[in-house]
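Input record, target 12 of the design panel.
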């Protein structure tokens, strides 16, 4: 019978060999943040989700009310999440010039808080909220204080299951006052890419540039279902760069990876951060 620990150790050794001496671009997904208490989308045991589309948000007052209640109730816990060893390992790899930076599909801001300096947030961030009419940008903490002032009946300590984007499914949104822009009264939207919305072209170009100036690609905690991730992997493969994937469970490109490590990201990224700087 195969020893799973020995198998993982062998995969990690192969990953180190593939990345050694190279400048590495990193692509991360929700699996990197699960050890911080933020659930992922498609991992083992993840419940089925029907996230709100941008069309719903823009066209329906009721949908926006439901979104803002759930987003606000979950945001306090989402914002309280702390970077885990995987985030810190990636920051360490950047500080030792092993990695060129991180492209992340996550909106939790944990890479920045862990100390990573070059972070391309493909899907935006929950730290900011913008007005769709005048373009004014607000800090989410300031907006949260305003929401609670306008809706003092909200139970912000209610323990509802948290979603990957920091939202919860509230029982009711009745009576909730939707926040509007304090400058022009326009519609507010978190600075994140909703389902059905395109990643800003300049943001994807920045991600492509990071991969283009690197010598290998490390994918961590992503099942690579989202097309933006697949496209970055294909950019690396066209240049014949080594592609190392660290993820629990299958991804869409396992067969095309140089090395696949089927394990948790925190322990594997820590092992890479311990080994790779001395191999430059």
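The sequence produced for target 12 reads:
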């Amino acid at each position: 019978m195969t020893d799973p620990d020995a198998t993982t150790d062998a995969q990690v050794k192969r990953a180190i060999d593939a990345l050694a001496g190279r400048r590495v671009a990193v692509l991360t997904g929700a699996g990197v943040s699960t050890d911080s208490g933020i659930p992922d989308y498609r991992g083992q045991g993840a419940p089925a989700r029907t996230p709100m589309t941008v069309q719903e948000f823009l066209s329906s007052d009721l949908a926006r009310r439901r979104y803002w209640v759930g987003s606000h109730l979950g945001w306090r816990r989402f914002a309280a999440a702390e970077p885990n060893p995987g985030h810190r390992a990636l920051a360490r790899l950047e500080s030792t010039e092993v990695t060129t930076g991180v492209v992340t599909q996550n909106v939790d801001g944990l890479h920045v808080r862990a100390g990573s300096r070059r972070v391309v947030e493909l899907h935006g961030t929950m730290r900011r909220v913008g007005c769709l009419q005048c373009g004014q940008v607000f800090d989410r903490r300031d907006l949260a204080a305003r929401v609670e002032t306008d809706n003092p009946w909200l139970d912000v300590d209610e323990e509802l299951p948290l979603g990957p984007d920091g939202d919860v499914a509230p029982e009711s949104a009745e009576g909730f006052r939707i926040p509007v822009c304090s400058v022009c009264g326009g519609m507010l939207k978190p600075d994140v890419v909703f389902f059905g919305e395109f990643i800003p072209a300049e943001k994807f170009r920045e991600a492509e540039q990071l991969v283009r100036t690197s010598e290998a690609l490390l994918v961590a905690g992503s099942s690579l279902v989202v097309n933006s991730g697949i496209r970055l992997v294909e950019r690396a493969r066209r240049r014949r760069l080594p592609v190392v994937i660290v993820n629990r469970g299958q991804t869409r490109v396992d067969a095309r990876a140089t090395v696949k490590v089927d394990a948790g990201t925190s322990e594997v990224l820590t092992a890479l951060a311990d080994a790779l700087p001395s191999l430059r």
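The chain has two domains: 1-38+83-123+199-280, 47-80+124-192.
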